[in-house]
Write a structure and sequence with these properties.
It is found in: Cell membrane. With about 525 residues, the chain is mainly α. The chain is about 75% helix and about 0% strand.
Length: about 525
């Protein structure tokens, strides 16, 4: 490999053709990992019913989101040390191995463990796509290419549920193929990346912040356990609640100390002195809450309350995807032309709040056109918000902080998703349980026949009990979506206070005075190598 010393401000520029070649490999891998998430979403009611019951649904989803969340900022740091391409391929390899294990799962514990490893790989892929895009594209042009990332998200969101519904319904296949189907796609993505991805690796003399990684993981895990198990496995007013709450606070406090003392922190404290990073991360957290809450629990409403088969349930996500797809492409191109970005997340967060409010009004007899319009409004809002927040942070970040700031925003979006799935799962489970318990006494139907396993099992319940279960799920879903409305409003408030700085035509260099333009810590020049 050729090796040369380069200045931080002399990094090469890439032509449009070169960028498209690189983007093709990145987006193929990203499409694969995103399909793995959305394909399982439609099949989850069947999967958890087969392996362990509907009350385990939030854990199957949360395991992936938890590891995705805590690993996201670490991938950015590892790519600074070992190179973007190598870490991207490692993440893809982890994803493939975990997908195979998930498909082979014999019990709910094995599935949750495999999904956790799958989340590690997905965290690397989702974070490093944005980091690599920031490396090869100038800030003013990122809106144009970020639109492609949003489009891939839209395609995977519609392709996944459709594919998942087909696999679950198809004779001779079943839900295990929801995991197997991603493997050949990932292998092709690996080959494409090996061929087209040629990046200059700026090698830094740095270390991994293991204490920061451990404390951030501990804090996120404690919070997830509290939200997932509270009110279900133990009462909210119990010693378990207080212990997990105390652990969450303690780990978060230790994380602050660890990051302040670390030579190369995963989340440098200086980022939180950047108003744009702080507010965009806050807004991204609320976007994650809304996004993952809908993607995970909307299929339950469609399959259990509306009685749709998985394939038709997947089709009902088309309006969300089309809205997200169109909004992402159009907003990205407008931002590239004008450099102005703030209007899009402002309007987007209002549409997210409106969409969630409309979804909270759905009833068992709601018509499919009404459901489709509600979902489409939400999709447009998400498409206008997600990529713009990352662009805003990349635009304000110094070049040395490009990877950590990008992965940092992704971390908070994933954290919002993980907390949202756990919290919404607790609301749903407790709501269904209390509603059924309250109403079972008013019917003579035998409670012993109550089976909340797969949607098919629920549909097979005696008529009187079935009606109670449907009403219970409908009422609980109403609460889930309604809780998301103030969350989206908080995201809107955070965007209001963002200061709009038009997208630049070149990256910012580290500020003079205290940090060298060529190296951040030891004053030695960095070395770049092309792999």
């Amino acid at each position: 490999m050729a090796q040369e010393t380069v200045r931080e401000d002399a990094r090469r520029t890439y032509t449009h053709r070169e960028i498209l070649k690189i983007l093709s490999g990145l987006l193929l891998a990203l499409l694969t990992s995103m399909i793995s998430t959305s394909v399982v979403g439609t099949a989850l009611p069947t999967i958890v019913g087969d392996l362990g019951g509907q009350e385990q649904l939030s854990w199957v989803a949360s395991a992936t989101l938890l590891t995705l969340t805590v690993s996201t900022p670490l991938w950015g740091k590892l790519s600074d040390i070992f190179g973007r391409k190598l870490m991207f391929q490692v993440a893809l390899g982890l994803f493939v191995a975990a997908s195979m294990l998930a498909g082979l799962s014999q019990n709910i514990g094995m599935l949750i463990a495999a999904r956790a490893v799958q989340g590690l790989g997905t965290g690397g892929l989702s974070a490093l796509v944005q980091v690599i895009l920031g490396d090869v594209v100038q800030p003013r042009e990122r809106g144009r290419y970020s639109g492609y990332v949003g489009a891939v998200f839209g395609v995977s969101t519609v392709a996944g549920p459709l594919l998942g519904g087909f696999l679950v319904d198809a004779d001779g296949l079943g839900w295990r193929w929801c995991f197997y189907v991603c493997v050949p796609l990932a292998i092709v993505a690996f080959a494409v990346i090996q061929r087209v991805l040629r990046l200059e690796h700026v090698k830094r003399d740095t270390r991994i912040d293991w204490w920061g990684a451990a404390t951030l993981t501990g804090g996120a895990t404690s919070l997830m356990l509290l939200l997932s198990l509270g009110g279900h496995e133990f009462d909210w007013n119990s010693s378990w609640t207080y212990v997990l709450g105390a652990l969450t606070v303690a780990f978060c406090g230790l994380a602050v100390v660890a990051e302040r003392k670390a030579a190369e922190p995963i989340l440098p404290p200086r980022l939180f002195r950047d108003r744009t990073f702080l507010l965009a991360s806050t807004a991204s957290l609320f976007v994650g809450l809304a996004l993952y809450g809908v993607l995970i629990y909307l299929p339950q409403f469609l399959q259990i309350v509306k009685g749709l088969m998985p394939a038709r349930s997947g089709l009902m996500t088309l309006p969300l995807v089309l809205g997200l797809f169109v909004a992402s492409i159009i907003s990205g191109r407008v931002v590239s032309r004008t450099g102005k970005w703030k209007l899009f997340p402002l309007v987007g967060m209002l549409l997210v709040a409106a969409g969630l409010g409309l979804l909270s009004r759905l009833q068992p007899d709601s018509t499919f056109p009404v459901i489709g319009v509600d979902i489409a409004i939400l999709g447009v809002g998400l498409g206008m918000s997600m990529q713009m927040l990352i662009l805003a942070v990349q635009n304000s970040a110094e070049r040395r902080d490009l990877a950590v700031s990008t992965s940092g925003v992704s971390f908070f979006r994933s954290l919002g998703g993980a907390v949202g799935v756990a919290a919404f799962g607790a609301i749903l489970t407790n709501g269904v349980k209390s509603e059924i318990s309250a109403k079972l006494g008013t019917t003579t139907a035998p409670a012993a026949k109550l089976d909340l396993g797969t949607p098919e099992a629920i549909r097979a319940l005696p008529a009187a009990v079935h009606d109670i279960v449907i009403q219970a799920y409908s009422s609980a879903m109403h609460t889930v979506f309604l809780v998301g409305v103030p969350v989206a409003v908080l995201g809107f408030v955070a965007v209001i206070f963002l200061r709009e700085v038009p997208l630049r035509s070149a990256d910012r260099l580290p500020a003079a005075g205290g940090q060298d333009r060529h190296d951040h810590h030891d004053g030695h020049p960095r070395h770049a190598k092309t792999s």
